[in-house]
Design goal:
Length: about 220
């Protein structure tokens, strides 16, 4: 799971993409990897890597965010530091990309640099969110993001959840939907993710790795 130098996470709004990216970065750093995380989510001001900056930086992770990250201003002003991460190969880099085809255009700016690297592109799916509930909706979203990012999705992430009401059965239900998506697009499931109390009770997806999550991203109404 942690073998690639460049790891890209895309996904629709509410997929939990940023939480997955932040936890992935923390666990990569925990394995002794020199890690950076790039917030390319120029679309959604409410769920951003910048929320977890203190936690990430405390673990030695370099955090690179757009100039207007963590505000209500969504202007695609991307820092020059991003290009530096492709040049400095001592870093393992996680890229958290915006939540739709418009957001995915941000990563397309770096396509030529990315494809020269050892990289992987994960698409995070929460089947309990609008527009990614069915095989047809998920396929449509993947095709849109692939087109906008100009990068093929390599693997899917089963991150089905309904916050505190999540269950292992919910992950199993999502696994059946993602199996159909995989069959149609020839994109395998890379890993399944979830909070430890849920994921520890999930026995499906034999042979597929698990990413145990801890909550790092605060909901808007939790920020006081």
């Amino acid at each position: 799971m942690f073998s690639k130098r460049i790891v890209i996470f895309t996904g629709h709004f509410g997929s939990g993409k940023t939480e997955v990216a932040v936890n992935y970065a923390l666990q990569a750093a925990g394995k002794g990897k020199k890690t950076a995380i790039i917030d390319l989510d120029i679309v959604n001001p409410f769920f951003r890597t910048a929320d977890a900056r203190n936690t990430l930086e405390a673990e030695g992770i370099k955090v690179i965010t757009p100039i207007y990250a963590n505000t209500n201003v969504d202007v695609p002003s991307l820092p020059a530091e991003i290009s530096g991460m492709f040049e400095d190969r001592s870093y393992n880099v996680i890229i958290d990309v915006g939540g739709d085809d418009l957001g995915a255009r941000a990563v397309s700016r770096y396509r030529d640099q990315i494809v020269r690297e050892d990289y992987i592109h994960y698409f995070v799916v929460n089947t309990r969110r609008p527009m990614t509930r069915t095989k047809e909706e998920i396929v449509k979203m993947i095709l849109e993001i692939q087109s906008s990012a100009n990068l093929k999705v390599d693997k899917l992430v089963n991150n089905a959840n309904i916050l505190d009401a999540s269950t292992p059965e919910l992950l199993a239900e999502a696994a059946r939907i993602l199996e159909a998506v995989s069959a149609e697009l020839s994109i395998p499931v890379g890993f399944v993710s979830g909070m430890e109390e849920v994921l520890s009770g999930y026995e499906g997806d034999k042979g597929i790795e698990k990413l145990y999550l801890k909550k790092n991203i605060r909901l808007p109404w939790e920020r006081q």
